[in-house]
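Action item from last week, closing it out:
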Amino acid sequence: MTNTTKIATLAGDGEFTAYRATPAGTPKAAIVVIQEIFGVNAGIRRKCDTLAEAGYLAIAPDLFWRLEAGIELDPDIKPEFDRALELMGQFDQDKGIADIEASIRAVRSELGDDAKVGVVGYCLGGRLAFMTAARTDVDASVGYYGVGIDGLLAEKHAIAHPVLLHVPEEDHFVDKAAQAAMHAGLDDHPKVTIYDYAGEDHGFATEFGERRSDASAKLADERTAKFFAENLA
């Protein structure tokens, strides 16, 4: 079942909408799906639906609500892609993390204080998933082609729960030097696993559109499913 839900900010100064996909039976855990710069669009909603089919309560908060609520953009349409980049430049990432934490608290409150909650993010969401792992008590975090993680390595000491990162080797937003820095900084971290994808570019695991690379997307999603099964049990 799918619908939308409202979540109050941690500061109590507003509320935002989240897309919600509920499994047929009792949820085995919850997963917060963190959007790309294109908003909670059809691809992100499909990610939630797939997680619900696997037995998880999945929600995708609208993190751009302070800029413009309900943003849905198509990366294959240039004016919409350009609009997404504009929004990214205006987005307050610290407030975004606070809204993700509010989402984690909301689903944990619903399922019970002992319920496990994970996050999975894409692009901007991949970066935010790493930040969430370092700044909140989330139980497991997955980031797909997160941008700028090499600049966040000073926060790695705060990561207490498992993190999985999917890194396309030909990511035109994350160059080889940044990828090397990620490996140098994280390969020996006991909670972090990095998978590299030769020949793949940014957005390879999108649900729809020109960026998708089907074989690698399926492999990454299988690894994510196994990771969540092991860490949100």
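Closing note: The helical segments are 42-53, 78-90, 93-111, 124-135, 176-186, 214-231.
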